[in-house]
Amino acid sequence: MAMLSNLDLIRRVPLFSLLTADQAQSIADSVVKRRFKRGELIVEQGTKSNALFILLNGRARVLTADSRGREVILAVLQPGDYVGEMSLIDNEPHSATVRAEVQTDMLVLGRSDFARGLPEPSSLAYGILRGLVARLRNADRQIESLALLDVYGRVARTLLDMAEEEKGVKIIRGKVSRQDMAKVVGASREMVSRVMKDLEDKGVIETLENGSVVIKERLQHD
């Protein structure tokens, strides 16, 4: 790797394959090389690193974990793959942790240099990018729920995601369909109904006459 210029290196990355010569040179002048040891964290879930990381060689795992430390592997990254773009686009913390599986060499592109390659914030393209990132974050969260939580936990998390806060009270406006809930959490309608009834019996939630649901106590979902 040491004998290749940054320009040579980025020309090998599919992400940069459509850049003009000037654009490619600009990226080449901005990236820095970094080596990660086996087991070293590249990005950490819940934090911001303000950079795009592009794998040159090696291998890395994309992981998400619950509060008990249980992990789910969302993806295995190979040379040419990249991470960190979601946080750079929506300015939110990383939705997953990325850990080097073996010694891994990367190119690192800082936030300001990455931003120069994005559409204008007021453009339709940028709005679509943010929408796609939001969908990816939701997908990661759903995969984590299906892998790590039981039906009770998945129902609780879904209720919290659906709720809006009004004057310090969490409420879900409109009838909560048990059938739709079952499709979201990957369980039978009967199982979801039993969980909802149990939550009501314990006074954790209350279903109003119009079908809206009030969350009266903190729901445990992890």
Key features?
transcription regulation; elongated; Env_Response_Regulators; 4-stranded antiparallel β-sheet; 8 helices; Crp/Fnr family transcriptional regulator; alpha+beta; HTH_CRP; 222 residues; 38% helix; WH_DNA-bd_sf
Report what the structure shows:
The protein has 222 residues and is of the alpha+beta class. The protein has eight helices and twelve strands. The protein has helices at 6-10, 21-30, 85-90, 111-115, 124-148, 151-162, 178-185, 189-201, and strands at 32-36, 41-43, 51-57, 60-65, 71-77, 82-83, 97-100, 104-110, 164-166, 169-172, 205-207, 213-215. The protein has a four-stranded antiparallel beta sheet with strand order 1-8-3-6. Strand 11 and strand 12 form a beta hairpin. Helix 6 (151-162) packs across helix 7 and helix 7 packs across helix 8 (189-201). The radius of gyration is 22 Å and the shape is elongated. The mean pLDDT is 88.
Distance between the termini: 43 Å
Largest sheet: 4 strands, antiparallel
Enumerate the strands of the largest sheet in spatial order, edge to edge or round the barrel.
Answer: 1-8-3-6
Count of DSSP H/I helices: 8
Q: How many beta-strand segments?
A: 12
Fraction in beta strands: 15-25%
Q: Report the structural category.
A: alpha+beta
Helix content: 25-40%
State Rg. 22 Å
What is the string of SSEs from the N terminus onward?
HHEEEEEEHEEHHHEEHHEE
Uncertain regions spanning at least 5 consecutive residues: none
